[in-house]
Write a structure and sequence with these properties.
By secondary structure, the chain is α/β, with parallel strands linked by helices. It is built from eleven helices and 15 strands. It folds into two domains: 62 residues, Alpha-Beta Plaits, CATH 3.30.70; 270 residues, Alpha-Beta Barrel (TIM Barrel), CATH 3.20.20. Strands 7, 8, 9, 10, 11, 12, 13, 14 and 15 form a nine-stranded parallel β-sheet that branches. The chain binds phosphoenolpyruvate and manganese (II) ion.
Length: 353
């Protein structure tokens, strides 16, 4: 159940609602989302309780949302949510434009970042990716440059004007990541790190939430609820492949989950064709398939010297492959009523409207 308060309701009105719910044995939290004060209850309650709450002067509306979703549900918000990322140049997820994020798996050096940023920007990317804090399977693998990596990202953000996304793995780093970049990425391995989710929600910064490799769609959406119930609805979901019995691809890209998530939630959904397949020759076909399946964008690993990459070089595509993919994406998107988002150029101006 979601209880929406009147905009002019006194500040303490939520207390009356939460107390009434509590008297009926229902836990609830109060929050503010998109400027509206609301109370989100754990259960959907009875029609009688909804009617009683609707009778309270402070209450504008009561939504009895079926199932476990609340604020992420289409019952709460029918129209697609647009998520704007960046300052001077913005990438907008969830509208007609299809947003392409590209860059290396990990930030390595200033030269590497300049080379790749120039290349993906020239190819039409709307945002730059690059990990500074890398959650690696082995503690002996390259763990990322940490704060020094954030500085290198911030440099590219200033130089190119491209909005930047990077992964944050611990609540203590949220402040620095929020300062130096435009979007916090929560990785597959941290999808259910609830403290991290809560803090990322409280940061007010846009969040890219990757699906856990063994997470159901419901668990993924409930992880997003953690962000929304903290008052942050600038959330983009990312399907990045799930674990299956078949090891011929790194993970199994679940495109059905993209279409299903789009049905269940108003939040934008993008696809990572790189981490899901682990194979550069599958990145093109799966990117096109994602666009056809209704995804709102892509996040792609691109590297200028993949063989020397310190992280996930084996799955990165090069500049020529990126350009060729972007050339194919345009007409395909047009066929499904979408378009590639306009690109940002070095001066930071939009090429076309
Ligand atoms: C990444 O995008 O750099 C990454 C580690 O992805 P995932 O969390 O999906 O494995
Ligand atoms: Mn990676």
């Amino acid at each position: 159940m979601i209880v929406l308060l009147h905009s002019e309701a006194p500040r303490d009105s939520s207390g009356i609602v939460t107390e009434t719910l509590s008297e009926n044995g229902i836990d609830a939290v109060s929050t503010t989302l998109g400027g509206a004060a609301l109370i989100v209850a754990e259960s959907s309650g009875t029609p009688e309780l909804a009617e009683m709450l609707e009778g309270l002067p402070a209450v504008a509306r009561v939504l009895r949302v079926p199932g476990p979703q609340r604020l992420t549900s289409r019952a709460f918000r029918q129209e697609n949510t647009s998520v704007r990322v960046g300052e001077n140049v913005q990438a907008v997820f969830g509208g007609r434009d299809f947003v392409v994020i590209a860059g290396p798996c990990a930030v390595e050096t200033a030269e590497q970042m300049t080379g790749i940023a120039d290349l993906v920007q020239a190819g039409g990317a709307n945002m730059l990716r690059g990990g500074a804090f890398k959650p690696r399977t082995s503690p002996y693998s390259f763990q990322g440059l940490g704060l020094a990596g954030l500085t290198l990202l911030a440099e590219q953000r200033r130089r190119t004007g491209l909005p930047v996304v990077t992964e944050v793995v611990t609540p203590q780093d949220i402040e620095s990541v929020a300062e130096e970049t435009d979007m916090l990425q929560i990785g597959a391995r941290n999808m259910q790190n609830f403290e991290l989710l809560r803090e990322a929600g409280a940061s007010g910064k846009p969040v890219l939430l990757k699906r856990g490799m063994s997470a159901t769609i419901e668990e993924w959406l409930l992880a997003a609820e953690y962000l929304l119930h903290m008052g942050n609805d600038d959330v983009v979901l990312c399907e990045r492949g799930i674990r299956s019995y078949d090891r011929s691809t790194r993970f199994t890209l679940d495109l059905g989950a993209v279409a299903e998530a789009k049905r269940l939630t108003h939040l934008p959904v993008i696809v990572d064709p790189s981490h899901s397949t682990g194979k550069p020759h599958l990145v093109g076909p799966m990117s096109l398939a994602a666009a056809a399946a209704g995804a709102d964008g892509l996040i792609i690993d691109v590297h200028t010297d993949a063989r020397a990459a310190l992280c996930d070089g084996a799955q990165a595509i090069d500049g020529a492959q990126f350009t060729s993919l972007m050339d194919k994406l345009g007409p395909l998107l047009e066929a499904v009523g979408r378009r590639l988002a306009p690109t940002a150029h070095p001066a930071g101006s939009l090429a076309s409207a």
